[in-house]
Amino acid sequence: MGISAGGSKGGPKSEMNVTPLVDVMLVLLVIFMVTMPVMMRSITIEIPRDLDTTEVSIVKTNIVILGLVDGTLEVSDGLNEPETVQRTQLAKVLRGRLKDVTSEKTVFVDFQDGVPWDQVISVMDTVKGVGKVTSGDSVREVIKVALKKRKDPAELQ
Question: Could you give the domains of the chain?
Answer without folding.
Answer: 63-147 (3.30.420.270)
